[in-house]
């Protein structure tokens, strides 16, 4: 048994033993969980994939004369941002696109530029064009603002992602006879390909399946800088079916994360364009797992072949909210390049970069070993399996119009 | 026997000429058309895989040159921007000729441009648009 306090003491003294979530697999296989739990202090994880529910907020500073963007409109490089705050606070969502983007009018749309790409440019230190319109008040008389902004001049630039880091995900296939364009990539007809999106044995929440160490307040690698788990992510769903090893067999837990964008790196926040679907942001996240006991190390040592995901049809079942899975496969099979679905050999592709996930786990390991990164004690736990917390579909209640309203 | 993938640019005056027919008839070369189009400037573009005896191949290329056809190796035309590529691998099942391949150890994606037939399927499905075509 170890405490986070003791581990931090070791980090300060330069005596900490850190291995990645890949390295721990071999180590536990060789030495056993008991010995590994004694020897290893921290296991680092990593993931780098498209995470749509991401964005950043900015305080741009007050202009002279003042302008109240709240209730008005504002764009960054033509991408609309949310202004429903006070005078000069704005939130840029990753999936926002310019008003004049043709979207899916000529199908499949290309979605070459959106909020995620703006975030990438802002992080890179590039100037970004801001255009704002306001209605004008006595205290904020200005009606129009056009200016370049730069991250170094902003009062705050904060990445705040409300759902990242999915604990496991679907494997997407297409059972129809036409190609389809989804957030899981282009899916060729008649089981032409199977796309998955997880770092598997490197993925943070898969290595702490019951959220024993990862909680609200956990300090993490976020976008190449330091961030924190701020809450459970939206759609957090701990109560899905799990294997005996505790690993959920379907998309389960999620994280909401926050961190100072000014410290982050362009390399770890990359705008992506999903053909026929839209824009998203590739986010690099790494979470350290303190090895408090044998149970924690056992979970952290689970390998790809023990992590299962569901193969889901995205031509009908997914869009129509029809529950069910066509097949169950593990990440070792997915990574081999082909899986068998309905008797057919289907080639696989990953949307989440495994080599980049590995790079993040290595980077975080380096930070901890150097003493630059101390572990934090979570201040509250994420809702767990027994919490009753879950994912509900929308209960639609049609709005019946009265004759007066219809007028 | 040799087999090469080449890109031919036909000037406007040659668009009506049966050039590929001559390659077969006079030089005994086998061809496989991978792509053919006429651009708005009425220039012809053709991506060919050309197979035959080495001396016939060379004479065929000489003939094309003498007609004023510009020849490029295909491998120069499809490239990958390695800075943009994140090595995710979503392109791998899309490529019909396995020109994109993930290394089982490093999990990095390799692009074998010699295998590429310039179908361009990977270009638009690449999330970071790292695959680029310059015809």
Q: What do you see in this structure?
A:
The complex is a heterodimer of chains A (407) and B (135). With 407 residues, chain A is of the alpha+beta class. Chain A has eight helices and 26 strands. Chain A is globular, with a radius of gyration of 23 Å. Chain B has 135 residues and is of the alpha+beta class. Chain B has two domains: 2-76, Alpha-Beta Plaits, CATH 3.30.70.260; 79-135, Alpha-Beta Plaits. Chain B has a four-stranded antiparallel β-sheet with strand order 2-3-1-4. In chain B, strands 5-8 form a two-stranded antiparallel sheet. The longest helix of chain B has 14 residues, at 54-67. Chain B is elongated.
Outline of this structure?
Chain A is an alpha+beta fold. Chain A is built from 8 helices and 26 strands.
Give the fraction of residues assigned to helices of chain A. Answer: 10-25%
Which chain pair has the greatest contact?
Answer: A-B, 35 and 19 residues
Query: How much β-strand is present in the residues of chain A?
Result: 25-35%
Distance between the termini of chain B: 27 Å
Total strands of chain B = 8
How many helices of chain A? 8
Major sheet summary line of chain A:
9 strands, antiparallel
Distance between the termini of chain A: 70 Å
Oligomer: heterodimer
Mean pLDDT of chain B: 91
- The CATH superfamily of the largest domain in chain B turns out to be ACT domain
**CATH fold node name of the largest domain in chain B:** Alpha-Beta Plaits
Provide the structure class of chain A: alpha+beta
CATH architecture of the largest domain in chain B: 2-Layer Sandwich
Radius of gyration of chain B from the CA trace?
Answer: 17 Å
Query: What general form of chain A does the structure show?
Result: globular
The overall average pLDDT of chain A, rounded, is 97
Overall structural domain count of chain A:
2
Strands in their spatial order, largest beta sheet of chain B = 2-3-1-4
Element order of chain B: H for helix, E for strand: EHEEHEEEEHE
């Amino acid at each position: 048994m170890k405490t986070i306090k003791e581990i931090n003491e070791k980090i300060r003294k330069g005596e900490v033993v850190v291995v990645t979530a890949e390295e721990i697999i071999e180590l536990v296989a060789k030495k056993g969980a008991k010995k590994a739990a004694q020897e290893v202090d921290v296991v680092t994880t990593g993931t780098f994939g498209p995470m749509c529910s991401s964005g950043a907020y900015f305080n741009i500073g007050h202009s002279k004369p003042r302008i109240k963007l709240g209730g008005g409109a504002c764009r960054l490089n033509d991408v609309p941002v949310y202004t429903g705050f006070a005078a000069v606070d704005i939130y840029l969502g990753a999936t926002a696109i310019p008003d004049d983007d043709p979207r899916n009018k000529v199908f499949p749309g290309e979605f070459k530029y959106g909020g995620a790409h703006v975030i990438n440019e802002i992080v890179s230190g590039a100037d970004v064009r801001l255009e704002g319109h306001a209605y004008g008040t006595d205290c904020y008389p200005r009606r129009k603002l056009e200016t370049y902004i730069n991250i170094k001049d902003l009062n705050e630039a904060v990445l705040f992602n409300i759902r990242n880091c999915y604990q496991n995900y679907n494997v997407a296939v297409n059972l129809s006879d036409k190609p389809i364009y989804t957030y899981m990539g282009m899916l060729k007809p008649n089981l032409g390909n199977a796309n998955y999106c997880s770092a598997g044995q490197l993925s943070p929440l898969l290595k702490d399946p019951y959220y024993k160490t990862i909680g609200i307040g956990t300090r993490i690698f976020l976008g190449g800088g330091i961030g924190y788990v701020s809450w459970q992510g939206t759609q957090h769903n701990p109560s899905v079916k799990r294997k005996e090893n505790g690993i959920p067999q379907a998309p389960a837990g999620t994280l909401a994360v926050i961190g100072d964008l000014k410290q982050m790196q362009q390399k770890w926040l990359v705008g992506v364009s999903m053909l026929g679907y839209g824009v998203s942001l590739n986010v690099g996240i790494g979470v350290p797992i303190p090895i408090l006991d044998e149970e924690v190390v056992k979970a952290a040592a689970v390998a790809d072949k023990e992590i299962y995901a569901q193969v889901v049809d995205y031509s009908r079942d997914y869009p129509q909210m029809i529950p069910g899975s066509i097949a169950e496969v593990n990440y070792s099979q997915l990574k081999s390049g082909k899986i068998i679905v309905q008797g057919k050999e289907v080639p696989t592709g990953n949307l989440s970069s495994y080599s980049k996930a590995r790079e993040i786990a290595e980077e975080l390991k380096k930070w901890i070993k150097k003493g630059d990164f101390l572990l934090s004690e979570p201040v509250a736990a994420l809702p767990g399996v027994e919490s009753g917390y879950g994912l509900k579909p929308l209960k639609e209640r049609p709005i019946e119009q009265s004759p007066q309203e219809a007028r | 026997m040799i087999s090469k993938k080449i890109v031919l640019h036909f000037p406007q005056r040659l668009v009506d000429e049966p050039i590929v027919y001559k390659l077969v008839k006079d030089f005994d070369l086998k061809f496989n058309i991978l792509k053919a189009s006429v651009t708005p400037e009425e220039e012809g573009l053709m991506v060919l895989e050309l197979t035959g005896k080495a001396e016939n191949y060379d004479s065929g290329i000489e003939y094309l040159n003498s007609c004023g056809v510009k020849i490029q190796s295909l491998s120069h035309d499809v490239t990958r921007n390695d800075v943009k590529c994140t090595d995710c691998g979503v392109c791998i099942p899309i490529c019909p000729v396995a020109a994109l391949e993930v290394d089982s150890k490093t999990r990095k994606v390799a692009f074998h441009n010699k295998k590429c037939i310039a179908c361009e399927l990977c270009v638009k499905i690449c999330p970071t648009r790292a695959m680029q075509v310059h015809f």
